[in-house]
């Protein structure tokens, strides 16, 4: 058995185990809250999402080198960051993915904890993520032609990934209600090779 | 026909260069435009890049004047051809070394260097070659063959229109709108397809379960999969008890057919699995809500 | 100036990038105030100036937020988690008028209309960039 098959099999086993745990012994919260959590008690106290026992850290920049699970990142204003990726680090690059998809030259934002040795242990890394306000100038089968300020962009439609939200509604794979001339917010992954965008979601107003 | 094109080329080139040159030389946005071009890296300085762009604008204006005033002279035509070849070389270099940079060509529209930028540069070079071969002044050509001249000028205008993004709203957008009206929207309508993962995440983030578990969650979405009608979303988190801080997997299981449109208040199953012991953590760690102090304030 | 706790506004928060950074930020530059950087806790406000108001026009969605100028500070709090971040105004935005009526909710409580744009640094302190928008309360 090849290494990848083996690790794929392990991943499936792990998922199976986690699914059983998630569905089986879970607390149900929501519409049919079966004696789960007391919602009022949960909201009574304002809470903050990050633990201040470990100082929160943020990094922004472009990947200049990768060494196993450490990213060497050059900040846009001359800073330098070493970002550690762990099993608990979420990685977004157009979709939820793994560290293998990160390449030298990619841009990123990372949130995590500052370590005593000066590195950042990342909780979450968003690679090449952009969120731009655009006007739709053209619609083709596999792409949208967009303008962002005075800049022209091509937004590529990625099958099984690109979604749309109309007037704040649920995200849907139905992209057919986009119109030329419409203003929209495009969240996607910037492509360093040509400066265009792979679209994750397009939010359309009225 | 060829002498006619040659003799009118100085006029067409001059008009084009006058517009783009004036835009670069006098435009208020030139500095911002220059900042996004590859010139900044080559010249190592934003101000020098702006100066270079304005200088090119000046050269374009001078060439335009020369082409208009002495269309039969060889030099303005050759100069224009050299300029066009220079533009093409610059674009090729910029595209190879900094593909995301702007071309800075027309002073109005920015954007990654594409086919149109090369087409424009190519047209300038070709126009220069044609202008160098002119054997009569454009004004005498206009009076001698007004019909043919009008045709050539109209064709040149269409070519330039297609190669420039500045006037897209005049012809390209109406054309694209009409095409969609006739042939329909080419994008997928995806009726009856499965709910995208992003829609399930959106549903989770709207739910009481998310609100309850947020203090424990540290990562963004780490993994997801579908199993027997459920969509499981996994996040990394940590909780603290008397023995210290423990890493956990925070698992949410949602009905994979629901979205915020169909289920404003969904039932979500939440489980915490200790990453070290692989044991289910009792949900009591979620209540009472762990006390956390405020984030550091920006200074 | 420190961030306060007097309630100012509520609505959706979105995010944007600025400064001399990668992606589409370069063309945005350092924003209307000339100070904006993605890596700092900063924000864009729809009523930064009269010229800004003309672009964002939140009044068309029924949002008549007061004028706050470059350098003003605000506490932005996630409606659901209570996670809070203190931001400094550095740009004009978001384009409220283009998304009138858009809502973001948690557990049935919804916040309507885009009223503040946060830099990635500020947005990630209270939420996930891939979500794109959050329901927030704003204090000063």
Largest sheet of chain A: 5 strands, mixed, barrel
- The count of DSSP E runs of length 2 or more, i.e. the number of strands of chain A, is 14
Discrete helix count of chain A: 2
- In which order are the strands of the major sheet of chain B placed? 1-2-3-4-5
Helix content bin of chain B: 40-55%
- Overall structural domain count of chain B: 2
Strand runs of chain B, count: 5
Q: Write the element-wise H/E pattern of chain B from the N-terminal end onward.
A: HHHHHHHHHHHEEEEE
Q: List low-confidence stretches of chain B.
A: 288-299
How many strands, which pairing sense, and closed or not: the largest β-sheet of chain B? Answer: 5 strands, antiparallel
Structural class computed from helices and strand pairing of chain A:
mainly beta
At the third CATH level, what is the topology name of the largest domain in chain A? OB fold (Dihydrolipoamide Acetyltransferase, E2P)
Total tally of structural domains of chain A: 2
Q: How big a fraction of the residues of chain A is strand?
A: 35-45%
CATH superfamily of the largest domain in chain A: Nucleic acid-binding proteins
Q: What would the principal axes of the Cα set say about the shape of chain B?
A: elongated
Indicate the percent of residues in helices of chain A. 10-25%
InterPro entries (chain A): TAT_signal, TAT_signal_bac_arc
Protein name (chain A): Tat (Twin-arginine translocation) pathway signal sequence
Pfam family, one (chain B): MauE
GO cellular component, one term (chain B): membrane
Commentary on this structure:
The complex is a heterotrimer of chains A (206), B (299) and C (140). Chain A is mainly β and 206 residues long. Chain A folds into two domains: 56-127, Beta Barrel (OB fold (Dihydrolipoamide Acetyltransferase, E2P)), CATH 2.40.50; 130-204, OB fold (Dihydrolipoamide Acetyltransferase, E2P). Chain A has helices at 3-24, 39-44, and strands spanning 27-29, 56-67, 70-74, 80-84, 90-93, 95-97, 107-114, 120-127, 129-139, 143-148, 151-157, 163-166, 183-190, 197-204. In chain A, the strands form two sheets. In chain A, strands 2-3-4-8-7 form a five-stranded mixed barrel. A five-stranded mixed barrel of chain A has the order 9-10-11-14-13. The radius of gyration of chain A is 21 Å and the shape is globular. Residues 32-53 of chain A have low confidence and may be disordered. By secondary structure, chain B is an alpha+beta fold. In chain B, strands 1-2-3-4-5 form a five-stranded antiparallel beta sheet. In chain B, a hairpin with a 2-residue loop joins strand 2 (230-241) and strand 3 (244-255). Chain B starts with a helix and ends in an 18-residue tail after the last strand. Mean pLDDT of chain B is 83; it is low at 288-299. Chain C is mainly β and 140 residues long. Chain C has a single domain (7-139), classed as Barwin-like endoglucanases (Beta Barrel), CATH 2.40.40.10. Chain C is 13% helix and 34% strand. In chain C, the strands form two sheets. A six-stranded mixed beta barrel of chain C has the order 1-7-2-4-3-8. A two-stranded antiparallel sheet of chain C has the order 5-6. In chain C, a hairpin with a 2-residue loop joins strand 5 (103-106) and strand 6 (109-112). The longest helix of chain C has 7 residues, at 50-56. Chain C is globular. The model of chain C has no long low-confidence stretch (mean pLDDT 91). Chains in contact: A-B, A-C, B-C. At the A-B interface, helix 1, strand 1, helix 2, strand 8 and strand 9 of A face helix 9, helix 10, helix 11, strand 1 and strand 2 of B. Strand 1 (27-29) of chain A pairs antiparallel with strand 4 of chain B. Chain B: Its main location: membrane. Chain B: It is a multi-pass membrane protein. Chain B: Residues 7-131 form the Methylamine utilisation protein MauE domain. Chain B: It is found in: Membrane. Chain B: Pfam families: MauE (PF07291). Chain C: This is RlpA-like protein double-psi beta-barrel domain-containing protein.
């Amino acid at each position: 058995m090849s290494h990848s098959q083996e690790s794929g099999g392990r991943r499936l086993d792990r998922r199976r185990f986690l699914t059983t745990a998630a569905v089986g012994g879970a607390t149900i919260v929501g519409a049919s809250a079966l004696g789960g959590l007391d919602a009022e008690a949960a909201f009574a106290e304002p809470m903050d999402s990050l633990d201040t026992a470990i100082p929160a850290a943020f990094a922004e920049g472009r990947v200049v080198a990768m060494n196993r699970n450490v990213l060497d990142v050059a900040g846009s204003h001359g800073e330098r960051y070493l970002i550690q990726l762990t099993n608990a680090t979420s990685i977004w690059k157009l979709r939820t993915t793994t560290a293998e998809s990160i390449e030298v030259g990619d841009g990123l934002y990372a949130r995590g904890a500052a370590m005593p040795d000066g590195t950042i242990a990342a909780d979450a890394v968003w690679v090449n993520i952009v969120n731009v306000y655009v006007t739709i100038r053209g619609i083709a089968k596999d792409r949208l032609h967009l303008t962002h300020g005075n800049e022209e962009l091509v937004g590529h439609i990625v099958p099984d990934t690109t979604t749309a939200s109309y007037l704040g509604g649920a995200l849907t794979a139905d992209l057919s209600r986009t119109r030329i001339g419409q203003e929209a917010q495009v969240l996607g992954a910037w492509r360093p090779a040509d400066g265009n965008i792979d679209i994750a979601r397009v939010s359309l107003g009225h | 026909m060829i002498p006619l094109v040659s003799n009118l080329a100085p006029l067409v080139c001059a008009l084009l260069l006058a517009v783009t040159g004036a835009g670069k030389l006098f435009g208020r946005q030139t500095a911002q435009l220059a900042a996004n071009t590859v010139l900044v890296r080559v010249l190592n300085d934003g101000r020098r890049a702006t100066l270079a762009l304005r200088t090119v604008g000046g050269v374009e204006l001078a060439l335009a004047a020369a082409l208009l005033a002495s269309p039969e002279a060889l030099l303005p035509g050759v100069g224009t051809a050299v300029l066009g070849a220079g533009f093409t070389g610059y674009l090729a270099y910029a595209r190879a070394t900094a593909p995301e940079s702007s071309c800075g060509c027309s002073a109005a529209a920015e954007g990654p260097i594409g086919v149109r930028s090369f087409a424009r540069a190519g047209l300038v070079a070709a126009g220069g070659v044609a202008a160098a071969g002119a054997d009569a002044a454009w004004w005498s050509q206009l009076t001698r063959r007004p019909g043919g001249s009008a045709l050539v000028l109209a064709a040149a205008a269409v070519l330039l229109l297609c190669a420039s993004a500045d006037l897209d709203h005049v012809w390209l957008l109406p054309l694209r709108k009409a095409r969609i009206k006739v042939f329909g929207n080419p994008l997928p309508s995806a009726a009856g397809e499965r709910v995208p993962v992003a829609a399930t995440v959106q549903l989770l983030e709207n739910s009481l379960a998310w609100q309850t578990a947020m203090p424990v969650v540290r990562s963004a979405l780490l993994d997801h999969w579908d199993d027997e009608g459920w969509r499981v979303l996994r996040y990394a988190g940590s909780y603290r008890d008397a023995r210290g801080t423990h890493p956990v997997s925070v698992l949410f299981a949602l009905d994979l057919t629901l979205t915020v449109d169909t289920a404003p208040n969904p039932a979500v199953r939440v489980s915490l699995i200790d990453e070290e012991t692989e044991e289910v953590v009792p949900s009591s760690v979620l209540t009472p809500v762990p006390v956390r102090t405020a984030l550091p304030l920006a200074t | 100036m420190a961030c306060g706790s007097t309630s100012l506004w509520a609505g959706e928060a979105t995010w944007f990038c600025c400064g001399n950074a990668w992606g589409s930020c370069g063309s945005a530059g350092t924003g209307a105030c000339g100070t904006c950087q993605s890596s700092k806790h900063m924000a864009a406000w729809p009523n930064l100036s009269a010229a800004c108001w003309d672009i964002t026009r939140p009044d068309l969605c029924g949002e008549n937020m007061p004028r706050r100028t470059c350098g003003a500070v605000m506490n932005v709090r996630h409606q659901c988690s209570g996670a809070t971040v203190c931001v400094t105004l550095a740009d004009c935005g978001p384009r409220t008028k283009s998304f009138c009526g858009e809502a973001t909710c948690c557990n049935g409580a919804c916040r309507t209309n885009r009223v503040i744009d946060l830099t990635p640094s500020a947005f990630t302190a209270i939420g996930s960039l891939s979500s794109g928008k959050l329901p927030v309360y704003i204090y000063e």
